[in-house]
Design brief:
Layout: H1 2-18, E1 29-32, E2 40-55, E3 60-62, E4 65-66, E5 69-85, E6 90-101, E7 126-137, E8 145-154, E9 192-201, E10 204-212, E11 222-223, E12 232-233, E13 241-249, E14 271-289, E15 292-311, E16 318-330, E17 336-339, E18 346-347, E19 366-370, E20 372-382, E21 393-405, E22 412-422, E23 428-442, E24 445-460
Parallel strand pairs: 11-14
Antiparallel strand pairs: 1-2, 2-5, 2-24, 3-4, 3-18, 5-6, 6-7, 7-8, 8-9, 9-10, 10-13, 12-14, 13-14, 14-15, 15-16, 16-20, 17-19, 20-21, 21-22, 22-23, 23-24
Protein name: Porin
Keywords: Signal
Length: about 450
């Protein structure tokens, strides 16, 4: 009976993490393989559909035509996740889907032109997570310490809370992306293959991993002197990386059944956490100076704080959510990477074009991560309601990002402002957001801030 009670407690805590703000969600799609719940299969499915109106960087072409703006609709995430508890000690997690399909890109490899396999069509499913886990010390009510070990393609990548964020319950429309600093270079969509350990000691939570990064082979451009050399991702015979995240949870203790950190609980918990993390990969980037190739470690550090709790009179059901993180990134000298979510633009090849071109490139590309510092803060408030079961709950929010990269002579600031309209908690919501991004023409010249307006429809089971 003690073991059954423990299993029920673990299941309840994990399910409460899935059902933020939705009293009708219950246990979701869950299949008990034994009546006492000691064996089960849990299925999650979610779609995030984006409609956007975007200002394009100068020098942008869309499908061969010059464009200063664009409107489009795309599939940001279409996912399915399965996790099965085979016993109190054994668990398996499998997570697959697609991301970032637009009318011009995101399709299967080799899809171009017009026809059944034209550009942007028929993207291939791939695995995001696939790991096995064993509980060495099963958490129990009468003890503080727990320990689980696992291995495979996993999301225990350390560094920060947002590096292991759930994509189901963001406060903003999406993550800022630089929270996944290796994205699609030395990882597979924010995951690496390796071993991990997780657990708790009272209110202290720890996550550690030892991983084999995916190989990178970008060729560094030869520089005449070391001060202008630019590091690029080139790991050769890749060395093992190490990562960790440590967190103290002052109020309610969050579930760590799965790695995905909640972005907003909508007042269903009282959470105040501080955390710090790291990632280190030896000899992961290279520079070339006068023909001599040098290797550099990737060393990434962070510190963050997260608050989410109800405020005001209980009958008003108000809540506040806030998160702030500081990143110190070292990828090697002058490293800089430009990214844009679901970028539909390409650089114009028109020789007659004489205008400025964005240093980052075409479309909605921007300097996303690099050697230097990033400070990111977001905050939102769930507005009051007087209804027992309101049809819509509204959560306005804002976010601020400060970036200071070694490769750019001028730092930048950018903003996001938006609101969540909850039809059924995070399970059915509409999010609207206006975002700015800096457009560098030269390393010391920011021409302007370009804007992007996004409307997201999210439903998840």
């Amino acid at each position: 009976m003690k073991r059954i009670s423990l299993i029920a407690a673990v299941l309840f805590s994990s399910l409460s993490g899935y059902s933020q703000g939705s009293p009708d969600y219950g246990s979701g799609l869950k299949f008990n393989l034994k009546e006492d719940g000691s064996k089960y299969l849990r299925v999650l499915a979610w779609n995030q559909i984006w409609f956007r109106s975007s200002d394009m960087n100068p020098g942008t072409t869309i499908n061969g035509e010059e464009a200063s703006s664009s409107t489009d609709i795309g599939n940001r995430r279409l996912r399915i996740l399965l996790h099965a508890q085979l016993s109190p000690r054994y668990m398996i997690v499998t997570h697959f889907g697609i991301n970032n399909q637009t009318f011009t890109n995101g399709g299967a490899a080799g899809t171009t032109g017009t026809g059944g396999y034209g550009q942007g069509k028929k993207p291939g499913l791939f695995f995001h997570d696939a790991w096995n886990e064993y509980a060495v010390v099963v958490p129990q009510a009468d003890q503080k310490f727990s320990l689980s070990l696992g291995g495979g393609l996993h999301y225990y990548m350390g560094l920060s809370r947002m590096t292991m964020a759930s994509t189901l319950n963001f406060l903003t429309v999406d993550a800022p992306i630089f929270n996944w600093p290796l994205i699609e270079n030395s990882d597979q969509f924010a995951r690496q293959g390796g071993l991990f350990a997780k657990g708790k000691y009272g209110k202290f939570e720890y996550r550690l991993s030892y991983n084999k990064p995916f190989a990178t082979n970008l060729a560094p451009v030869d520089a005449p002197t070391s001060d202008v050399a630019v590091a690029v991702d080139n790991s050769g015979n890749t060395k093992w990386s190490k990562a960790g995240y440590f967190e103290y949870q002052f109020l309610d203790v969050e579930s760590n059944l799965l790695p995905y950190k909640v972005g907003s609980y909508l007042g269903t918990k009282k959470v105040f956490n501080i955390g710090a993390g790291f990632y280190n990969a030896p000899d992961a980037t290279r520079t070339s100076v006068a023909g001599n190739v040098g290797k550099h470690d990737i060393t990434l550090l962070s510190a963050d704080v997260f608050v989410d709790m109800p405020i005001g009179k209980p009958e008003k059901k108000m809540a506040v959510t806030a998160y702030s993180v500081f990143y110190n990134y070292d990828f090697g000298p002058n490293y800089l990477r430009n990214l844009g979510i679901m970028n539909v633009g390409t650089a114009t090849a028109d020789p007659a074009y004489t205008g400025d071109r964005a240093l980052a490139g075409a479309g909605n590309l921007q300097p996303m991560m690099g050697t230097g510092n990033i400070w990111y803060t977001q905050a939102g408030i769930l507005l009051p309601t007087s209804e027992e079961k309101p049809k819509v709950r509204i959560q306005p929010y804002g976010a601020y990002t400060y970036k200071n990269f070694e490769a750019l002579d001028k730092s930048s600031s950018q903003f996001d402002i938006g609101a969540n309209f909850f039809l059924d908690g995070h399970h059915a919501k509409i999010t609207t957001q206006y975002s700015t991004r800096p457009v560098y023409i030269t390393p010391n010249k920011v021409e302007s801030l370009k804007g992007e307006f996004t409307v997201q429809l999210q439903i998840y089971l």
